[in-house]
Every structure is written in C-alpha cells, then in structure tokens.
Amino acid sequence: MKKYLMGMVLVAALGARFAQTQTAATQPASALHASAAVQPVTDVGAPAAVDLPALRGQLQQFSDYLNRNLQAAFVDPFGLLQDVKGIYLPGYGVAFHMEANLIVMRTLNPWDMRPYTEEELRQTRQAKLERIQRLKEQVSQLLLDRGAELSAIPPDQHVAVAVHLFNMPSERTEGLPAQVVVEVNRAALLEAKARNLTAEQFRKQVTFLEF
Fold first, then answer.
1. Which of 11, 39, 95, 178 is most buried by its number of CB atoms within 10 A?
2. pTM, full prediction
C-alpha cells in the first residue's frame, strides 16, 4: 500500500510473480528442461475463472455507482477530488480507489487572508472524524446493495474500496487517518444477496481499516 491499499496488494502479487521468474531464470538449463518435461506451461495471466471482458464492464458500472452515491451521501462541503477507479488484481479480487476531501475549509484568498482560528481547526477535525465514520457506513451499505453485481470474479476473492483522505497542511491531523479501506469477501456479498445474511450479519463480515 503506497498511496492505496490496492497498490500494496498489486506490488505483492507482482513481487511474487517476479520472484518465481527469477528463480526459474537462475536454474541450470538441465533443471529447466527437466521441469519443462514434467510440468505443462501455464499462463501467468488472470485465472481462467475470471471473465475479463465482463469484469471490465462491471468495474466501470460499479465505479460510476460509487461516484454518484458517495457524492449524494454528503451535503456540502464535500469534495470528490478523484473519480472512483476500479482495478482487478489476479488472485485477490477487485479494488476501487478514490481521493476525497470530507470537509472543504474556508478558502483563503487575496480578499480574505485571515488565518484559520483554533475554533475553525477544532471544528473541522471533529467534523472529519464524524464523516469518516459515516463514510465507512455508507461504503459498507453500497457494497451490500450492489456488490454482488461484480459477478465476474470468483466467490473466494475480495472487493475493496480505498479512500485517500485529503487534508490541508494547516489542519489539525493528529489522530486522523490518511486512508480508509473497506473490504469484504465476495462470498459474503452473495450470501447477503440470497438473503442468507441480515444487514447486521453482513457488516460483521466487512473489514474496516484506517491508517
């Protein structure tokens, strides 16, 4: 996870593949020939169980769904600084990431250069803490409502939504996370869709990470 949890998962996946490639590259030619004789060559791309053309459309549809509903869930001030983008990570599942400014502070300009007061900074920090909690609840609900539509990935893989939180340099950021990640196994989404899980039971299957 550099800027996003998804980045870290992707780096780990690619790192594992790279390590396997390096191991093969350092083996003697005889060992490689022997290995090739007993093991079929496999595609290191996406698993065969994933319908990539269908998944591509589903990623776009769910990204648009998150875009619309997250912006509608918060009254002003709220800023979605980066549209939601979905990616597929082989062996892990799908991830959606974005950048948001949960509270837009008073804009400093040539006609009003007053520095932020301690009260403004305190209120902004408190409002962000409240909105972070609401953000987690909202994303969890959106996953419950429509996450099962990501049908192109296997049930044992995951769906994650990562939100990078924008903070002004002058803000009081002590105790504020830089990212919020909401993750759930797709099997739980299918169970919820089949009504084998209540909304409360589903939320207990969801993992929340702030850091």
1. 95
2. 0.75
